[in-house]
UniProtKB/TrEMBL annotation:
It comes from Deinococcus koreensis. Residues 16-37 are annotated as: Disordered. Residues 7-123 form the NIF system FeS cluster assembly NifU N-terminal domain. SUPFAM superfamilies: SufE/NifU (SSF82649). InterPro entries: NIF_FeS_clus_asmbl_NifU_N. GO terms for biological process: iron-sulfur cluster assembly. This is SUF system NifU family Fe-S cluster assembly protein. GO terms for molecular function: iron ion binding; iron-sulfur cluster binding. Belongs to the NifU family.
Length: 144
């Protein structure tokens, strides 16, 4: 295992064991849930939008390490970004997961680049991002 692969593995394990920005988000403007029935992953995603800016984002994920780490890394990457920037990041991340081609601008999200070789785990890594897409496409709070 290369030093870079070892570092990426460490990032994934750190975010899966101690997810960032988990739990309820007071003042959330958008709330939604995502599920991956093929492996049991679940996600509750909350956004606090102020105009076109994501002021805060929380994700409470359950399931495999890849799904939990992806949600945690996403919350860190998107806080303070505009909706347009979030969409660009989501598109670049999804492309990386599907093809293995990574944009250096993804930063720590590149830790999940190797998932593209694990076809059964692609849905795990993309679940938070698909849920984000639904929330960003919703004009109002989508809380269940």
């Amino acid at each position: 295992m290369s030093a870079l692969q070892a570092m990426y593995k460490q990032v994934i394990m750190e975010h899966s064991r101690k997810p960032r920005n988990a739990g309820e988000l007071p003042g959330a403007t958008h709330t939604g849930e995502g599920h991956n029935p093929s492996c049991g992953d679940g996600l509750r995603l909350q956004l606090q939008l102020e105009g076109d800016t994501i002021r805060d984002v929380h994700a409470t994920a359950t399931g495999c390490a890849i799904s939990v780490a992806s949600a945690s890394l996403m919350t860190v990457a998107l806080r303070g970004r505009t909706v347009a920037q979030a969409r660009e990041t989501a598109q670049a991340f999804t492309q990386m997961i599907r093809t293995g081609e990574a944009d250096a601008a993804l930063g720590d999200l590149m830790a999940l680049q190797g998932v593209h070789t694990l076809h059964t785990r692609v849905k795990c890594a993309t679940l938070p991002w698909q849920t984000l897409d639904v929330l960003l496409s919703s004009p109002t709070d989508t809380q269940p």
